[in-house]
Amino acid sequence: MSFWDHLEVLRRMLFRTAIVLVGAMVVVFLNKSLVFDVIIFGPRTSDFILYRWMCQLGDYLRWEGLCPEAFSIPLININMAAQFFTHISTSFWLGLVFAFPYVIWELWKFVAPALYDHEKRSVRYAFAFSSVLFFIGVTVGYVFIFPLSIRFLGLYQVSEIVPNEISLNSYIGMFVTLILTMGLVFEMPVLAHVLSRFGIITRRFLRKYRRHAVILVLVLSAVITPSPDAFTMIMVAVPLYLLYEFSILVCKKV
Is pTM beyond 0.70 here? Predict the structure, then answer.
């Protein structure tokens, strides 16, 4: 194929991807009550599923301090059109999350003709598994990381004289950032598998630099979590390190 033929294939791929993305965005946009009231705004109260789990675990371990006290973080809006544009932007990002498997599939169709047969067999499973890891990362970010972060930052006060008034844009921005970041971070084993298949890294290489990886995981967890408390950082660091160990397993030995 010529250069212009490749551009035509790329244009068609982007067009199909855009149609699916817009369709997913419209579905999210039309389900405003479910998306915002139930899903996005769910972690701002003590009735969220994570806190119920913590209370059940606290009852089982007879550790009363594990169950958080009842709380509700109020949100405010100070801009005239902020709620409308927040609705549109959030629909786009959540639509991208739901359309991620199709985006990966289109990307695979575009890249596959340029690979040899043995490369296709190796990379095909990586592309298929990437969607699973992405949604696992999104789930971990939504169920664990975001609720703990918003609870700490939303209730923290330097003084009782200064009440917290969390803006809608701040809340949604933090939600989208954490959810997408955790989804992308969970792609680490897929990236390691592909790089090992192309001979760039090996299992021995990752084992050799395991100690350095621990430091990098702690730094990355500190960057991902906006709250400085050690508990939230550990909640992020543990799955990241487990992902690194899993990346070692999926890499080639030599």
Answer: yes
Give the whole-angstrom CA distance, residue 39 versus residue 61: 29
Q: Binning pLDDT at 50, 70 and 90, where does residue 228 land?
A: low
**CA–CA distance, 74 with 51 (Å, rounded to integer):** 18
Q: How confident is the model at residue 32 (pLDDT cuts 50, 70, 90)?
A: very high
Distance CA 184, CA 127 (A): 13
